[in-house]
Design a protein that fits this description.
Layout: H1 16-21, E1 25-27, H2 34-39, E2 44-45, E3 48-52, E4 68-75, E5 78-83, E6 90-95, E7 108-116, H3 117-129
Antiparallel strand pairs: 1-3, 2-3, 4-5, 5-6, 6-7
């Protein structure tokens, strides 16, 4: 990374400024669910959970795609990864639909978007705070 502290080698450089200030962003619906969200930051617990994961939860979704780093989720069935192969990482949406037994089936890459990682972060923050309009 360029000029930012990164405890994780594969943190997307474009997210360095965010992680200098915040270690993830999410919602807290009930104080009783906070502990669970802290232990399993990629999961949602009755509405409490991270939408932008803390640094400790940044990871490649599989050993066969080391250039992808999951950093966020859209909902309980879709995680978002940054494609680190380009200078300006784009979002890749990962389908997490549950299988017959209720476990994530990891059906794979749902699609590569034209949306950059920072655009996704800005849109997520806008949705979380309910702002009518944000400039980025």
């Amino acid at each position: 990374g360029q000029g930012y502290y990164s405890p994780v080698a594969n943190i997307p450089a474009t997210l360095g400024c965010l992680y200098r200030v915040h270690d993830g962003l999410g919602t807290l619906v009930s104080p009783e669910t906070l502990g669970s969200a802290m232990v399993e930051p990629t999961h949602n617990f009755l509405g409490t959970g991270y939408y932008l994961f803390p640094v400790e939860a940044l990871a490649s979704p599989s050993s066969s795609t080391p250039w992808l780093v999951t950093f966020a989720r859209v909902d309980k069935h879709c995680m978002v990864a940054a494609d680190l192969r380009s200078e300006i990482p784009k979002c890749v949406f990962l389908d997490q639909q549950p299988n017959f037994f209720g476990a994530p089936s990891h059906q794979g890459i749902d699609g590569v978007e034209d949306q950059t990682v920072l655009e996704f972060v800005a849109d997520t923050i806008e949705n979380l705070i309910g702002a009518a309009e944000m400039q980025y």
